[in-house]
User: Which sequence fits this backbone?
């Protein structure tokens, strides 16, 4: 029956971390926050289609849904929109379908109500995707705050640096548990990321993981596990950085300068040692 809507709390499957957004005012605020361009939308996790229903009224939508039951329900509920091309429904794990570099063959905006266990992975994928232009992502409040944090904030992290390396991030609204069915045990937030470029340097990501490896220790101490102390001292001095700085006290642009300077120093050191070996042979 096309008009039948299952009870969200009973329909929810813990395997997929499903909490269905049902608050109409929150859905309307998300729609209003979508960039005013004409890009098609990719929606991840449409669930029972409450947000999808509004999205297809304003754009062409491709929706990725992992739960086979939800896919069957969506295929029936949106049969008309699928038939006239306003909605394309993709059933299966979006990570398995994110082949190559992009989730699409054309520029797109990403909208998603993500299960908390996979949110960070999806956002990082989208930051690397050269055709993803913007994101409106519903995630756990603490996760959103990490991506949107600025230099000096206690939760400024590698995720913050990566996000600001790609564009600008902000929290558009906070969402209480009662906006969902069933209600999650945590607060949520809608994170907006407007991209100016895509992440393309995996080595820089590895560098940031090392820099923030132990946030309570100094940045110098964290980096000394991966680089010679003498080279770190030289680079810190050239950039005017104190050895007592914590990782969250260094801004995004300085992290890029630090990374390039340290990798250049390391490469130079390797070349010098190689030349010394050749001279003694």
Assistant:
């Amino acid at each position: 029956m096309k008009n039948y809507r299952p009870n969200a709390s009973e329909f929810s499957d813990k395997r997929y971390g499903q909490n269905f957004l049902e608050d109409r005012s929150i859905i309307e605020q998300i729609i209003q926050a979508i960039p005013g361009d004409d890009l098609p939308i990719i929606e991840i996790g449409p669930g029972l289609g409450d947000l999808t229903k509004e999205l297809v009224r304003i754009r062409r939508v491709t929706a990725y849904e992992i739960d086979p039951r939800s896919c069957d329900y969506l295929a029936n509920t949106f049969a008309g929109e699928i038939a006239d091309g306003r909605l394309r429904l993709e059933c299966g794990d979006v990570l398995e379908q994110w082949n190559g570099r992009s989730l699409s063959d054309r520029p797109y905006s990403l909208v998603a109500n993500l299960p908390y266990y996979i949110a960070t992975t999806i956002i990082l994928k989208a930051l690397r995707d050269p055709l993803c232009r913007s994101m409106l992502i519903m995630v756990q409040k603490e996760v959103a705050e990490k991506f949107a944090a600025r230099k000096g904030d206690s939760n400024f992290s590698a995720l913050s640096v990566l996000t600001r390396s790609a564009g600008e991030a902000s929290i558009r609204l906070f969402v209480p548990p009662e906006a969902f069915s069933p209600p999650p045990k945590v607060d949520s937030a809608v994170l907006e990321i407007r991209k100016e470029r895509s992440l393309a340097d995996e080595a820089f990501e590895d560098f940031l993981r090392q820099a923030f490896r132990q946030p309570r220790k100094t940045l110098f101490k964290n980096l000394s596990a991966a680089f010679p102390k003498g080279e770190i001292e030289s680079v810190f001095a050239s950039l005017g950085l104190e050895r007592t700085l914590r990782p969250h006290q260094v801004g995004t642009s300085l992290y890029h300068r630090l990374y390039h300077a340290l990798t250049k120093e390391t490469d130079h050191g390797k070349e010098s040692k190689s030349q010394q070996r050749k001279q003694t042979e």
Summary: The beta strands are 20-21, 41-44, 61-65, 87-91, 108-113, 132-140, 167-175, 180-181, 188-195. The radius of gyration is 22 Å.
